[in-house]
Amino acid sequence: MPSIEQLTCFVVAAESGSFSAAARQLGKVQSAVSTAISNLEIDANLELFDRSSRSPVLTEAGQMLLKSAKTVLHSHHEFNAHAASLSSSNEASLCIAIEQNVATPILLTVLERFANTFPYITLELLDPGSGDVAELLRSNRADIGLMIQQEYYPQGFSFRGIGHSRVIPVSAPDFPLAQMKQVTLADLRQHRQVVGRSLDPDNQMHERYTLSPQVWLSESPFVILELLCANIGWAFLHEAVVKEKLHSGELVVLDLVYEQADILQGIDLVWTENRALGKAGQWLLQQLQSLRFEE
Question: What are the HTH lysR-type domain coordinates in residue numbering (predicted)?
């Protein structure tokens, strides 16, 4: 009978692409991950990974069993979370991580109702930068997260889309690109781009939004705002972040030739199955699920 530890090592190794990456994510030494997967292969009497190349690759049997392993782990997390919530009523405190790119005014009504409904519960609000909400949830630093959507989430995460955020190309009004009536992709590549990135060095999602060979990076969109106002470069920023600077005239929208429609990114409400939410947490999660971010 495979253990939860063996199945976890198998799933994380398959998703991360290597035993060493899985070990880092699970906080284990690589030998422990390798041993767990080897023992799982012995118990199953199957080879789950082809180790003939530099990085292990799932065999056909491994690909077929990966979904089953995820289902078992999902049921295990659900059981633990359900049992924990039944054994307690209200938690003493809750923590919400709200990515800086997500507009907060829409949350105020829900937070006011929470304050009135659960007056003795301490609520902590974190405002991490681009891509860092998931890590706060994975490490159990936060209970619930609001973030710009990712392509995939780690094993044990649940999420629900609750709207969109508009992304706008901007610069200072006297920046060279702002002087052009229409800006081409080639024009963008000739000037420094300031890009938001995660604090996690392994998170390279920012690279897909990087167009210029001249790049500065920051985890804070508000630092990026100040850099743009200082005429240091241009950037793609979320409307919630840049709205005030556009209204004041400190920044302007670049007119891109190649982008005729609005650039929209989804906003996700995220939580983990292995983080038990009590009565207050379940109430807050349900209220947040009813929100709709539309810009």
Answer: 2-59
What per-residue confidence (pLDDT) applies to 81? 67
Amino acid identity for residue 238 in this structure: H
Question: Residue 111: what pLDDT?
Answer: 95
Domain-embedded: residue 105: yes
Pull the structure tokens for residue 21: 């990456």
- 3-state SS, residue 25: helix
Q: Whole-model pTM?
A: 0.68
Give the C-alpha separation, 211 to 213, whole Å.
7
End-of-domain residue from the set 56, 86, 116: 86
Q: How many domains does the chain have?
A: 3
Structure tokens at 29: 């030494």
Q: How far is CA 263 from the centre of its chain?
A: 18
Closest by Cα among 151, 205, 149, 211 to 177: 211
Kindly report, residue by residue over 90-108, the tens digit of the pLDDT: 678 899 999 999 988 889 9
The separation between CA 243 and the C-alpha centre of its own chain, rounded to angstroms, equals 23
pLDDT number for residue 189: 94
What's the CATH number where 276 sits? 3.40.190.10
Domain-terminating residue out of 86, 104, 123: 86
Phi/psi-derived region of residue 50, left when phi > 0, alpha when psi is between -120 and 50, beta in every other case: beta
- Provide the residue count of the chain: 295
d(CA 69, CA 55): 21
More confident residue, 278 or 204: 278
Residue 73 domain-assigned?
yes
pLDDT value of residue 207:
79
Residue 145 maps to a domain: yes
294 domain-assigned: no
> Is there a single domain that holds both residue 193 and residue 159?
no
Does residue 74 register a pLDDT over 80? yes
Same-domain status, 225 and 259: yes
Domain span at 54: 4-86
What is residue 145's predicted lDDT score, i.e. its pLDDT?
Answer: 95
